């Protein structure tokens, strides 16, 4: 799939004799041109663009601009909106905004349940042709029978269930990981079981229904092992994790809400298990869970601030700096989990003119004041990284250029 050679033409560079790295393990070539590297543009299956209903946090326009700046040309927007996309009437509002203002390809989710309330199914059949999958992200579906019904319906419609896995009765008012930092600083913790217990339940339901199933933002060692076992048994399951779970542990936390998200950053044991899962293929893809909030909503400390951080503009640089440059994974592997696997699983076409250009030698400090996203809360503020996106092409159209 030598479409990256097209990137040289689109980037319109005049360098002679470009060097193509061996990417045969994933069928993708990476084109190098005097410090610039051309990749297939990235795909993030888990972002929150907040429109309609919460435009003061983010809009489809600002979110898609942030995505383009981060090297993305495909994103999937989560449905915790107002109105949420649980029927065609509500979904039309979002589709119109996407058509009018998106800079890249924006694929909306439909909800699993009406109002994301976990009581009855959304109008799944009606909205299925217009959504990438079904999810109640932000809330786990608590009732076993309802989740089984949703899986059967999604299976009949040829759609995937994408699950935020969380057992409400195990949360107990927690807001960071139930670990050493919480004990040292007097915070209420969220136990790991609240995540992996519902994953285990859902896997049994997937075995019964045969639906294609994807797990959002896994954060625990137990989740990795449960999913690894399910894959070995032939279950149709994939999963994602986010950069902050792979790089940080709970002892990196500070009394600052830029470290507060759901699920929380967990222990070093969990982090190492996630890295192992990424290396052995248990974890299929990197997603950011880009979740912007207003400055006020993120200025109330760990306990009282809202959960969620942004990540579209920092994901590649963080992964490249801490996992590729340190030799944990190859550059080809990083492209696989950020660009190739997400599209394969979600059925998005590999457009040969969706490309991103990075300067891997550029070292800089992450500064949220520079973000194109309206959200500025990042756990990596002040971190020195390598790898700056200098251009992104969506369908051959230049949608981001650093010097412009």
Name of the CATH superfamily: Metal-dependent hydrolases
Order of strands, widest sheet: 1-2-3-13-14-15
Question: Can you tell me the CATH topology?
Answer: TIM Barrel
Assembly classification: single chain
Unreliable residue runs: 1-27
- Structure summary, number of beta strands: 15
Largest sheet: 6 strands, antiparallel
List keywords for this structure.
404 residues, alpha/beta, 13 helices, 33% helix, globular, disordered N terminus
Q: Topology of this structure?
A:
Blueprint: H1 5-11, E1 19-21, E2 30-33, E3 36-40, E4 42-47, H2 60-69, E5 72-77, H3 88-101, E6 105-108, H4 124-127, H5 144-157, E7 161-163, E8 176-177, H6 180-185, E9 189-190, H7 193-209, E10 213-215, H8 221-232, E11 237-241, H9 243-247, H10 268-280, E12 285-286, H11 301-304, H12 315-324, H13 331-346, E13 355-365, E14 384-394, E15 397-401
Parallel strand pairs: 4-5, 5-6, 7-10, 8-9, 10-11, 11-12
Antiparallel strand pairs: 1-2, 2-3, 3-13, 13-14, 14-15
Helix pairs in contact: 5-7, 7-8, 8-10
Write structural notes for this entry.
The chain is α/β, with parallel strands linked by helices and 404 residues long. The protein has a single domain (42-353), classed as TIM Barrel. 33% of the residues lie in helices and 18% in strands. Strands 1-2-3-13-14-15 form a 6-stranded antiparallel β-sheet, sandwiched between helices. Strands 7-10-11-12 form a 4-stranded parallel β-sheet. β1 and β2 form a beta hairpin. α5 (144-157) packs across α7, α7 (193-209) packs parallel to α8 and α8 packs parallel to α10. It is globular. It starts with a helix and ends with a strand. Mean pLDDT is 92; it is low at 1-27.
